[in-house]
Amino acid sequence: MRGGYRESITAALLASAMISLHTGPAFAANRWGADYFPNVPLTTQDGATVRLYDDLLKGRSVAINVMYTSCKDECPLETARLAQLQRLLGERMGKDIFFYSITIDPKRDTPKVLKAYAEKYGVGPGWLFLTGNEEDIKLATKKLGLSRVRDSASKDGHSASLMVGNEPAGLWMRNSAVDNPQFLATTIANFLGWKNEAPRKSYAEARPLVLDKGEYFFQSQCSVCHSIGQGDKMGPDLAGVTARRDRAWLARYIMMPDKLLAEGDPIAIALFEKYQYARMPNLRLSSDEVAAVLSYVEGRGDARGR
Ligand code: HEC
Predict the structure, then answer these.
(1) pLDDT tens digits for 266-281?
(2) Residue 305: exposure state from Cβ atoms within 10 A (0-12, 13-18, ≥19)
C-alpha cells in the first residue's frame, strides 16, 4: 500500500467517501496522511498533550467517536457499547487498535471530568478521551468526518458514528457506534485484515440465540448497562425492581425516562442523581416491548430468589 497515489484532498472528499459502510469499506485511492490531518494539540484524560496526527493517527489503526459527558441520549449508550467492544478486542487494544473519544464540549469536559467518565465506564489501555481548544476540536472532527454528529446531537435519535481507520493504508470506514459490539468487533477485524480471529464472546453475547422476546430485548437493549442480580453496571441492578416499583411507573419510565425526568418525577430525579454520567436512554420501545422486557426482568429476578 505504501507509495500509493498522492493527491491533495479536501474534507468534503473524505467525508463523501466515508459513506455508510455496513456493506463494506470505502477504499481510498488517496492517502490521507500528514498532508490531510491537522496536527492540532489535544489533551488526554490524564492531562498529557498529544498531537492529532503525529501521536494519535500516524502508523496506527484507530476507532474514533465524538461524545460529551453531559449528553443525555446516545452518548452513554455509545460509550457503554464501546466499552464492550474494548473488552471483545482484548489484547489488541493499545497495540493493534486505539480508541479515541473526542469531546465536543471542551469547556465542560476538562481532563478531570473525562477521567472520571472514563473510569466510570471501565476504560482500559489504548483508549483515550480527548479535549482541547474548541477550534482545534472543530477542525479535527471535521477532518475525521465526524462533525455532522454535532449538528444532530441536539435532535432525538441521531445516529452516533464510529470512524474506523487504518492510517498507513489510507482506509477509513464509518460505523454506527451503537451497533452490537460483537458485530462491530467482527467488522473491524475484517476491515483491518486481522487473521485467525477466534470469535470472542462477551458474557452478554455468549448466550444462545434468544428465544423469548423479552429476553431478546433485554440482551440487545438493556444488558449493556444493567444486570439482573449481578450488581450495578452503568445503571442499577434490576433484580427485584418489579417488586420495588409500581408497574405502571416502570412501564412509563422505560418508555420515556427523559420525559419523567423533565417532569420532575421524584424517583427519576433520585436515580439520575445517583447514577452520574450514564443516563437511562429513551430507547423508543413500544408498550408491547416494554411489557415483554418487564416480564423477563420479573422472571429472572424471581428465579434468582433475590
Ligand atoms: C446506556 C445505559 C442504559 C441502557 C442501555 C438502559 N438503561 Fe436503564 N438505566 C440506566 C441508568 C444510568 C439508570 C439510572 C437512572 C439514570 O441515571 O438515568 C437506569 C434506570 C433504569 C430503571 C430504574 C431502576 C430502579 O431502580 O428503579 C429501570 C427499570 C431501567 N433502567 C430499565 C431498563 C431497561 C428495561 C432497559 C432496556 C430496554 C434499559 N434500562 C436500558 C442506564 C441504562
Answers:
(1) 999 999 888 876 778 8
(2) exposed
